[in-house]
Request: fold
Amino acid sequence: SVHATLHAIREQSSLHNGRILLFTDSPSFLKSGLPEYILTLQGNVGHISAHKGNHSITDKAFIDLFSIAKAKMVYNIVGPGLYASQFSEIGALIGNIPFIRINRVLY
Reply:
């Protein structure tokens, strides 16, 4: 659920001065009303494999990827409906920064 996902994000934000830059390919998650401490980049959001030919989504994905590469730390929260993303892991590899996959059972 969105509530459980936000709880998992809140746990990580408490470790990092309360500021999180969130990357997602889910427009509905972004529309759920994120707390102020969760920042996002502007642009059209979607999974690039589902939106082939939509250049605004593809461009946003590349901006996201290189923004991830500039982060201090990358987390991928995995649970029901949340997948073990290779996207965030590749961003961490590009930037040579720590990557942690958090496997959670989200209620």
